[in-house]
Amino acid sequence: QQQVKQSPQSLIVQKGGISIINCAYENTAFDYFPWYQQFPGKGPALLIAIRPDVSEKKEGRFTISFNKSAKQFSLHIMDSQPGDSATYFCAASREDNNDMRFGAGTRLTVKP
Amino acid sequence: EAGVVQSPRYKIIEKKQPVAFWCNPISGHNTLYWYRQNLGQGPELLIRYENEEAVDDSQLPKDRFSAERLKGVDSTLKIQPAELGDSAVYLCASSLRYRGNIKSSGNTIYFGEGSWLTVV
Lengths: 112, 120
Prior knowledge:
The structure holds 2 protein chains of 2 kinds. Chain A is mostly beta strands. Chain A contains no helices and 11 strands. Chain B is mostly beta strands. In chain B, strand 10 and strand 11 form a beta hairpin. Chain B is globular, with a radius of gyration of 14 Å.
């Protein structure tokens, strides 16, 4: 049961460009939406997260845009760098039970 | 602060053999998770503990998988017997859900580096 759908599966961006990854969720009870970054051979690490009371959250070059009515949220990486090359997972959960559901992941490659 | 520690990092076994993975969560974290991550996929929850109690094991294949978290700290995930389709990365994670009797805000889950299982 895939509750979080992520696209694209892979993404290639030139250095300095904008990387955009999209996610859609089904369960309207979800109220916490994090993005995780995973490098090869490592576990996922929290990158940035948003709650549905705001439509956008920015931390450095990373921005989450959230559309509650469409049940969609996206990650924007500005000025993409080769060091950003990794797999990115969106996720969603309910704060009252901590049941985190992950998207299938987007493999980002930033070319120098 | 030490992160989530898992062992072994890599394991190759023949099918029908048993295997066990160990996890030590971040100190003080009362919620512990075991996820399975297949190649090119996102993590899928196998079991979630709040202290010693398994509060969600609906996705754990109970015919061959078992888990325990004695004393509410470290945990062991066992597969017996292993099948070819069990080849995956087994991720342990932890989070702080309660401070005393007060539910903490935030759902940050911290992952270990994973145990890579290959069944041949």
